[in-house]
C-alpha cells in the first residue's frame, strides 16, 4: 500500500512541475472533480460494496480460509496446492502467509473505499436524507470489516479517513476498545439513517435492521448480553424479516432475495460477465459427467470434514442442503465424498463462475440464536431463550416453526446445557457461512474443542499474526504473541 501511494504522490508531483507548460485538462477525471453530484455519491458507496464481493480476497473465500477451514467443519481437498492454505488448516502458519495477507489487504481496501465515500459525500450538494443514508451505508461496510479484523487480529490500525499522505499510512495498532467503540458508533448511525428495508432497485444495501442485527452480534462478542438481546429484539420484532418455512429455500437461486437474509453479499450470476458466485473450488473434481461430454470443472479444494457431515442428526433437513454426495448433470448419476452444496446453482453447471447465489452475512436465524444466547447468559434457559432456539430447530426438521414439538424441541436443560445446544445448532445451521471460528472463539471453545479433536491449534492461535509484509512497510505495527517478532 505504501509503494502504491508513493507512486501516486510522485506522479502528482511530476504533473505539477509541468503545469506551467500545459493548460489544465477540462475532461480529466480526478478525485477533486469527481465527487460533485448525487450520482457520484452513489457510485462511491457502490465502490465500497464492490470490495465485499471480491471473493478471493474477502467473502466468501478470503474469509473461509481463516474462519471455516481451520475449524472442525472443513479440510483441504485434493485441489489445494498452496502450501500456505495447508498451513492454515494445520496451524503451522506464521506472519508470512499469502492467504492471511490477501484477506488483510482486501479488508483494508474495502475500508479505504468506504472512507472515501464518508469523506467526500458530505461536500456534495444533494438531498439531505439520501446523503445521510449513503454515508450510513459506507459506515455500515466499514463497521462490518473492522468487526472481522478485530476478531481475527485483535488490535489493528484504525483508519477512518481517506489516505492521502505517506504519514497517514504508517499507523500503530489501536486498542480493541477504540475499534469496538467506532464499530458501535458507525452502526448506531445506521440505525438512524439507513432505509427501513431495501427497495427492489436497492436489493443488497444495508438497512436499519442490518445495523441492529450486526450490533447484536458485536455486543454478543463483547459479552454485553443486555444490549445484544435488545438489538436482537429490534430485528425479531421487525415484520419485514423472518424464517423461511424451508431451509433449502434460503439458498434457492430463484429466491436469492428473501426475508431471512438481513444482509448478504450480492453476486450477478448467469450474465456472462464472470461476476457470479465462483463454484469451482467447492465442487467435485473430474467426477460429474456432462450431457455434452466432459465433466463438471470442479476442483475439490474447499471440502467439509466427514466428521461434520456425520454430525447431523437423523431427520435434519439442513444436511442435504449443506452437502451433497451424488449428482446427475444429465449424463448419469455420479457419487463422491461429501462436498459443499449450499451455494450450488445448476444453471451454471458448465460455467462455474456464473453462480447466482448471494453470500449471507447475517440471517434471521442468526439473530434468533443470538437472542437465545444472550438471554441464556442473563436469565438461564428461560422460555423465551428456548423458544428462539426451537424455532430454528423446528424448521430444520420440517416442522411448523411456531408450533411446539416435543420430539424436536430442546427443554429441561441447564444454562451450561443450553450453551452447548446453541453452539451445536449454530454449527449445523451456518456450515459454509464462515461463522464457525468466530463462534468457537466467542464462546471460549476454540482451543479446547479443536485440541480435543486432534487439530494442531496452539494457545496463541486465538489471534492470527499481523502479516509480515505490512510490518515491513509500517514499522509501528507490533506482532501478536506467539509469532515471530
From TrEMBL:
This protein's UniProt keywords: Cell outer membrane, Membrane, Signal
Keyword Protein transport on entry: no
Domain RagB/SusD: 337-445
Name of the protein: RagB/SusD family nutrient uptake outer membrane protein
SusD-like N-terminal domain: residues covered: 19-220
Record-stated family: Belongs to the SusD family.
InterPro entries: SusD-like_N, SusD_RagB_dom, TPR-like_helical_dom_sf
Amino acid at each position: 500500500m505504501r509503494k502504491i501511494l508513493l507512486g501516486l504522490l510522485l506522479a502528482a508531483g511530476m504533473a505539477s512541475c509541468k503545469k506551467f507548460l500545459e493548460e489544465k485538462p477540462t475532461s480529466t477525471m480526478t478525485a477533486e472533480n469527481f465527487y460533485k453530484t448525487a450520482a457520484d455519491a452513489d457510485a462511491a458507496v457502490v465502490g465500497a460494496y464492490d470490495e465485499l464481493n471480491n471473493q478471493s480476497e474477502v467473502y466468501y473465500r478470503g474469509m473461509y480460509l481463516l474462519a471455516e477451514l481451520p475449524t472442525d467443519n472443513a479440510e483441504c481437498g485434493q485441489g489445494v496446492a498452496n502450501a500456505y492454505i495447508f498451513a492454515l488448516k494445520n496451524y503451522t502458519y506464521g506472519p508470512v502467509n499469502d492467504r492471511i495477507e490477501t484477506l488483510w489487504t482486501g479488508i483494508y481496501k474495502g475500508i479505504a473505499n468506504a472512507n472515501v465515500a464518508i469523506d467526500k459525500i458530505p461536500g456534495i450538494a444533494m438531498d439531505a436524507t439520501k446523503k445521510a443514508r449513503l454515508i450510513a451505508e459506507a459506515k455500515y461496510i466499514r463497521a462490518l470489516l473492522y468487526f472481522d479484523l478485530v476478531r481475527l487480529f485483535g488490535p489493528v490500525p484504525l483508519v477512518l479517513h481517506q489516505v492521502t499522505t505517506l504519514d497517514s499510512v504508517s499507523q500503530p495498532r489501536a486498542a480493541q476498545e477504540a475499534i469496538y467503540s467506532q464499530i458501535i458508533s458507525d452502526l448506531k448511525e445506521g440505525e438512524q439513517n439507513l432505509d427501513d428495508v431495501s427497495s427492489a432497485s436497492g436489493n443488497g444495501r444495508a438497512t436499519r435492521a442490518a445495523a441492529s442485527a450486526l450490533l447484536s452480534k458485536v455486543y454478543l462478542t463483547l459479552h454485553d448480553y443486555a444490549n445484544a438481546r435488545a438489538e436482537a429484539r429490534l430485528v425479531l420484532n421487525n415484520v419485514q424479516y423472518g424464517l423461511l418455512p424451508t431451509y433449502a429455500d434460503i439458498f434457492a437461486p430463484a429466491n436469492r432475495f428473501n426475508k431471512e437474509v438481513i444482509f448478504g453479499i450480492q453476486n450477478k450470476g448467469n450474465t456472462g460477465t464472470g461476476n457470479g458466485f465462483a463454484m469451482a473450488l467447492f465442487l467435485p473434481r473430474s467426477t460429474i459427467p456432462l450431457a455434452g461430454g466432459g465433466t463438471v470443472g470442479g476442483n475439490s479444494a474447499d471440502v467439509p470434514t466427514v466428521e461434520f457431515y456425520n454430525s447431523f442428526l437423523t431427520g435434519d433437513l439442513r444436511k442435504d442442503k449443506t452437502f451433497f454426495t451424488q449428482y446427475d448433470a444429465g449424463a448419469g448419476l455420479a457419487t463422491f465424498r461429501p462436498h459443499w452444496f449450499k451455494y450450488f446453482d445448476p444453471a451454471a453447471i458448465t460455467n462455474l463462475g456464473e453462480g447466482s447465489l448471494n453470500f449471507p452475512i447475517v440471517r434471521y436465524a442468526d439473530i434468533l440464536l443470538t437472542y437465545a444466547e444472550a438471554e441464556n447468559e442473563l436469565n438461564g434457559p428461560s422460555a423465551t431463550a428456548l423458544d428462539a432456539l426451537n424455532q430454528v430447530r423446528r424448521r430444520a426438521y420440517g416442522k411448523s416453526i411456531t408450533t411446539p414439538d416435543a420430539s424436536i424441541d430442546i427443554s429441561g436443560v441447564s444454562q451450561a446445557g443450553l450453551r452447548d445446544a446453541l453452539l451445536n445448532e449454530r454449527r449445523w445451521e451456518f456450515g459454509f457461512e464462515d461463522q464457525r471460528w468466530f463462534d468457537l472463539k466467542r464462546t471460549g471453545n476454540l482451543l479446547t474443542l479443536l485440541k480435543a479433536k486432534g487439530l494442531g491449534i496452539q494457545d496463541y492461535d486465538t489471534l492470527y499474526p499481523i502479516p509480515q509484509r505490512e510490518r515491513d512497510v509500517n514499522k509501528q505495527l507490533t506482532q501478536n504473541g506467539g509469532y515471530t517478532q
